[in-house]
UniProtKB/TrEMBL annotation:
Signal peptide per UniProt: 1-23
UniProt name for this protein: Cytochrome C
InterPro entries: Ig-like_fold, Ig_E-set, IPT_dom, Multihaem_cyt_sf
Source organism per UniProt: Geobacter soli
Superkingdom of this protein's organism: Bacteria
Amino acid sequence: MKKKVLMSVSLAAVVLTGAMVGAAVPPPPANQFLGIYDTKFPNLTKADCLECHVSDTVLVQQHHALINTVTPPASCINTSGTVPPTLATGCHVMVSDGSGGFTFQDFRNCFNCHTQSPHHTSAAAVAKDCKFCHGNFIDNPLDGHYIPTYGASSVTPLPDGRTVPAPDGGTAIVQGCEACHQAAPNAIDPKTNTVRPIFSNQDTHHGTGITDCNLCHNTSSNVPIRQCEVCHGVNSLHNIQKDSPNAANLGTVKPGLEDRGWGHIGNNWDCQGCHWSWFGNSSPFTDATVPAINGQSSYTVTAGKEAVLTIVGSSFVNVGPDGVTTYQPTVTLVSGSTNLTLTPFSVTESEVKVSVPALVEGVYELRIAKANKVSNLAKLTVTPARIIASATLAAGKTLTITGTGFGPAPSTEYDAGIGVYAGTTEASIISWSDTKVVATSPDFATNGYVTVKTINGALSGKILAAPKKVKR
């Protein structure tokens, strides 16, 4: 039985530099605008990971912020010999530099540690809390959501669908998942405008790393789609829609009035993708459509400072099927005992801007909420404030640097790239704390510059002479 995780269901092509790329309208295959690309973990590259996780710099900050989330706190160096390394064993593996010393194994390769999907081995995934990450794009298999019990009819979707004449000529698959979700080896990713294969329902589901085969393969019902509805129920599927480039509706999602091929509920033809005999302009289950945080889903701000966060995605605002009710988003931030609901000061269908209060450092769960619908999970990393307040040089070329966010001291056993530098020359460390570093080097000079390389990045400051003592 074929079933698709519908985190990737926006269906129309996009026009870039005058050329049509991606899937046809109507599909198949579904274009990859909402949520996770239709791929499988063994096929991912680092570039694929960075579509959500942005950059090495953002990932470094996010991983370092996780150090204190385990008990006891994780150490930097993996001394256990465990492969792959984990937070519990220590992350960085040391290798010989050929001269009797040691240096870090390349840690810019995601797959050194993540040899299988880190997403489906999380505590939430093991507990089958799929909505924790996927939001209302999916249903939890154990939450008791509505699954029809009546027999199959012309309105009942089929896992594979069936072939009928298409309105534009030729044939089309209707009444099933494969009306939109099919493999396309030479598909063009509309987010990056690069060739990237779309995988079949079988491949994507088997590629998740989920080992409970009964979630999909259970023959207790004689209506095959009922097992798919264990995760993809009517209430989640009937609220997935992206704004189409329709001048009359541009800027908000209007169920029943969007161009066909941009979601599940935009046009009667979309309805027929699942229900061949369905005729109407909107779904009876539709209210707030599911908001989607797209592409960049890792954000960073500095601890102790207010900030403005710009979140990009789709379906952040929609008009209900009554044509009057408008559903507006809020932003939620959760970390430990902190649970904030923030009202954006600027909202479009594809962008939310919100003022974030000063937060303590750590990793926060970030979501967009809209009425009773919640987006997929994103992460906000609040990094420590890193400031050089002063760098004063005393006789003997001893430099005292004060500030915040210097982090842990460099090791005396290996070169981790952490330290104090006068130009390219590494200074000798006398003492190191999060707020004060004392180092010495013959290359320090008044009105020159010092660089402090910390676990969260480098800082530079101007060197000033220590004030002369006044004799009394």
